[in-house]
Design goal:
The protein is an alpha+beta fold and 587 residues long. It is built from 25 helices and 14 strands. Helix 5 crosses helix 22, helix 6 crosses helix 7 and helix 10 packs parallel to helix 13.
Length: 587
């Protein structure tokens, strides 16, 4: 049965004002707990979770807003399941943030795991991130015109093993299931093969040691590849075995790591970036620079008008996906969410000519360095140094002032060339810096609109205006560091694509929450340091004989304060009455 308490509903009595002292309660309301309680709790997907339960029949669920909020806080604070349960049951600040009364709520590990599974299967994390980010952007009135983009590598909680161990583990898993469910077919295998993979004490095959030499490792890997090929062929056609996930997984490992050439089984020199990396996380891929796992594309505001910067979008990916291919999708996503910037800062990996043109078509200025030329050609003269007709795109003169023998530009495939006499070029003092190449009896200079744009960008990025604008991009590295240190963004506690994506979205939303709380604390400090008004100064200069006037003034201030507290639901009615009586007596 659905159990939902709308956090927007106004309570008659404020339980937390009696639980905490006024000073502690004021601090709590200015920290992330107060911001989550007042602004973000109502954005949690309680209605989506409620659809999985009957409205009236069955045992009541846990209060769904608080459970959805607990899942959010668990991810963004990098809690374990046990820590999340303890926080929900015993931590008063978490209970205040989740709008549940302390001492009256409890949740078990199994119940939390069930709600985590629902949260993951329904794909609610992406919606939570979008709703939370939109609310905070509107609350802080952020300027989205300037943003920066970068990616970071993410490790899931998967087993890190080498190729030999991966291949042997895949084979051993299948043989374990065949032994358990089809003992007769298992015993039909050769005895030496069963002996090699029948060791239950470890995952390494037939006595292979970690300190083995390279030749020994190669021999073991070759033996495992031959055994995989034999077992796959031995059970081929038996639906009871081939339909098992372990058989399909073994087949995938063999196809990605091994090959059959003229009936001979060999191990591939390289398995490829999208090959299976771990049996515990089949969705993880490989990046040649950072290793196995996943990655996330993150865009963040970087305008000088913002007091704090927030993450505007997150795009979870596998480690094998390239940054250059991710930029168009990120721009499309930002446009769909009405967060498209006017200027986007990114590093060289995103700065291809195609990406610059794509952003220009979306009215976005991509500020990213073009890939530099090889060191030997760093100071070379290109077609950009030539005089080119703006209409026909044909070369009129080279940098030395020589006229080409022939020139042509094909607009259909964006290719052009200019031919120069060999004798003319060989006597030119700029020949060593020129990028002409031999072509029959002449020298040829090839160019295109794309090459001209790249050369123009290479020169612009060496100028001070570009460097001054681009310097803000480095700030995104601080974002990556903060996410990994405070949110556990670098190494997650989960594995598998759905769980990894859910945690990445919620951790990014948690970072935005902490940034908004920091903004609130800054404004609170500024307001506390504000100069006192003239009226407050005069009230302190009243003489002792004006006690009646002072009592009257205190009574008026107390009544106004009480009414304000009642309106904001920060004080209990009995507490207000007692406080009024105390103020009058003190006067």
């Amino acid at each position: 049965m659905q159990n939902i308490n709308d956090p927007r509903q106004i309570p008659l009595f404020d339980f937390w004002a009696q639980r905490f002292s006024p000073g502690l309660y004021a601090k709590l309301r200015t920290r992330w707990q107060g911001l989550f309680h007042d602004v973000l709790l109502e954005l949690m997907p309680a209605d989506a979770l409620a659809q999985q339960f009957h409205e009236q029949l069955g045992r009541p669920t846990k209060e769904l807003y608080s459970v959805a909020g607990l899942i959010f806080l668990k991810a963004c604070n990098d809690w374990t399941d046990e820590q999340a349960v303890e926080a929900y049951c015993f931590r008063s600040d978490v209970q205040y943030a989740l709008n549940v009364c302390g001492g009256q709520v409890e949740i078990s590990l199994r119940t939390l795991e069930r709600y985590l599974r629902l949260f993951r299967e329904l794909g609610l994390a992406a919606h939570v991130f979008d709703d939370v980010t939109a609310a905070l952007i509107a609350h802080l009135e952020l300027d989205l015109s300037q943003q920066r983009l970068d990616s970071t590598h993410v490790y899931s909680n998967m087993a890190m093993v080498g190729r030999t161990a991966l291949m042997s583990q895949a084979l051993k898993r299948l043989l374990t299931q065949v032994l358990r469910h089809h003992r007769g077919r298992y015993e039909a295998l050769p005895e030496d093969l069963r002996t090699r993979y029948g060791n239950k004490s470890g995952s390494t095959p037939f006595g292979w040691q970690r300190k083995a030499t390279t030749e020994q490792r190669r021999h073991v890997r070759q033996q495992v590849a031959q055994d995989m090929y034999f077992v796959l062929a031995f059970y081929d056609g038996e639906a009871a075995i081939t339909n098992k996930d372990t058989y399909k997984q073994l087949q995938r490992v063999f196809e990605e790591h091994c090959q059959v050439v003229e009936d001979a089984v060999t191990v591939r020199p390289k398995s490829g970036a999208r090959a299976l990396q771990s049996l515990s996380d089949p969705d993880a891929t490989y990046d040649g620079h950072k290793g196995r796992g996943y990655q996330a594309q993150l865009s963040e505001t970087c305008s000088d008008h913002n007091e704090v910067q927030l993450i505007t979008d997150v795009l979870p990916q596998t480690a094998a996906d390239s940054d250059s291919a991710a930029l168009p999708e990120m721009v499309e996503r930002l446009e769909d969410k009405q967060r498209k910037p006017q200027q986007l800062l990114a590093d060289t990996a995103y700065g291809s000519d195609d990406n610059v043109e794509h952003c220009a078509a979306k009215q976005v200025q991509l500020v990213a360095p073009a890939k530099r030329r090889h060191e030997a050609n760093r100071d070379a003269l290109t077609a950009l140094d030539c005089q080119i007709d703006a209409t026909t795109m044909e070369v009129i003169r080279c940098p030395a002032g020589n006229t080409p023998c022939a020139t042509h530009y094909n607009a259909d495939n964006d290719e052009g060339f200019a031919l120069f006499a060999r004798a003319t070029c060989e006597s030119c003092p700029l020949l060593k810096r020129c990028l002409v190449h031999k072509y029959r009896n002449q020298l040829r200079l090839k160019y295109s609109n794309k090459s001209l744009r790249l050369d123009r960008r290479r020169r612009e990025q060496e100028l001070p205006p570009f460097k001054q604008c681009y310097r803000k991009r480095a700030g995104v590295e601080g974002l990556m560091s903060a996410l990994k240190r405070a949110r556990g963004f670098g190494r997650l506690r989960v594995r598998g694509r759905p769980a990894v994506h859910m945690n990445l979205y919620l951790k990014a939303a948690g970072h935005n929450l902490s940034q908004a709380a920091r903004w609130a604390r800054q404004h609170l400090k500024l307001s506390s340091k504000a100069p006192k008004t003239a009226k407050q100064g005069q009230s302190r200069q009243l003489s002792p004989c004006s006690g009646l006037n002072l009592a009257s003034e205190r009574l008026q201030l107390a009544i106004g304060s009480a009414l304000l507290h009642i309106q904001r639901h920060q004080a209990l009615m009995p507490y207000t009455t007692v406080r009024l009586h105390q103020v009058v007596l003190a006067g």
